[in-house]
Give the backbone structure.
Amino acid sequence: MSTSAVPGQSCVIVGASAAGVCAAVALRGHGYRGRVTLVDADPNLPYERPPLSKGLLDGESAGLVPIQPPSVYQDLDIALRLGERVVGIDPAALTVRLSGGDVLGCGRLVLATGVAARRLTTPGADADNVLSLRDAADAVRLHARLARGGPLVIIGAGFIGLELAAVARRRGIEVTVVEAQPYPLASVLGPAVADLMTRLHRDHGVRLLTGVTVTEFLGSPAGVEAVRLSDGRRVPAATVVVGIGVRPRTELARTARIDVDDWGIPVNEFGQTSRAWIYATGDVASQPHPHLTARGRLEHWEAAQRHGTAVGSTIAGSPVRYTAPPYAWSDQYDTTLQIIGRPRRSDDFVLREGAVPDRFLAFWLRHGRIAAAAGMGAAREVGVVKRLIAGNVPVDSRLLSDPGLDLRGTLKQHLVRKSAQ
Ligand SMILES: Cc1cc2nc3c(=O)[nH]c(=O)nc-3n(C[C@H](O)[C@H](O)[C@H](O)COP(=O)(O)OP(=O)(O)OC[C@H]3O[C@@H](n4cnc5c(N)ncnc54)[C@H](O)[C@@H]3O)c2cc1C
């Protein structure tokens, strides 16, 4: 699509990842004819982040996976300013300032600045062999370290920590995962699913130590050689990866004096911040999503894409709310964990009987409907469950736990009943 820019109309998007790129494409898709500029401090053509902890580390894929081929930015007349950081926003002049000194005018500004990996403050945490994994440069560093072998200590049994454990085990590396909580992923999926994940990783030879923290990095300034745990144990390490969560990148937002909270940049249902001309989208946005009990971040690739698309459409004049159930996936060993919706503690939990560690379905029910679900090695069933959630279909919890129940049949019956009404 070629556009002739409307003089005086322009939108700057800070952050060219899932949310920022989708916002730019949606702007054009909905007929926005002003100048569109995508700025990112990362010098690479915008790339997909999920493969960084999977195929790329595994050596399965040779390079970064582009979010869009270069021709798309050209065809849609989206200017890319890569390797440049936006360092300030002037709300009176409606401009942003780049690290190189350029000033860009923007009638609309989108902050898609994402999140940064949280770091440990324990002495020694800044050694060269203590890494985190957030961007391409981190992945390249980690890939090089894994090529030297183990032992690898991963601090934090979240999605990235567990994916990394799986990749390292496949390469025959000795892996210890240290988790402060009693279970991996417990705050997301609860103890029953966490138990299945624990078995999966232990069966693959991961040493998973829960309920302990790292109190000390042992070694020389040249590098950590072991970590000391809160129970006194010493665990040898050639490489340490810290995967203890993230913090929202709100530094830039503060320069515009817009509201910022602990979760990120609070936005309304259309992605608008406390200044109407500035929007925030993706991981950095603290959003009022119907699947969250309170305003918060979603932190998933598809959610960031959908939110970015909604914000781009809204700015172009076609307001869209992002309300679909959040979806996330995580590849571990030869299987994939998929999660739809957000489980709540008060939900009724149903685990499909006969579950084995690398194949299960779990449901969280609210008012007799499936509100959230997680499946491992169950892609077809998860596809059906997505439709049961979207259709708000009443289900019988006793039947759900029966592996003999045909979920497709349930959905079909519901659709037939609906069409007969
Ligand atoms: C290793 C890894 C694996 C993942 N795997 C999965 C997965 O399997 N499934 C899943 O659902 N989710 C996964 N995620 C999460 C998913 O990638 C994120 O939810 C998604 O990337 C969020 O997109 P975003 O556009 O909001 O922000 P981000 O992807 O964080 O991008 C923000 C961008 O803003 C740029 N930026 C920040 N400040 C400035 C500034 N001042 N000036 C210029 N540029 C700036 C940064 O350089 C960055 O490129 C993974 C994340 C990581 C790190």
Observations:
- Residues 130-244 form a domain with the FAD/NAD(P)-binding domain fold (CATH 3.50.50.60).
- The mean pLDDT is 91.
- The pocket of flavin-adenine dinucleotide is lined by residues 14-15, 17-20, 39-42, 49-50, 52-53, 85-86, 112-115, 133-134, 160, 249, 252, 282-283, 299-302, 304, 328-330 (CB under 6 Å).
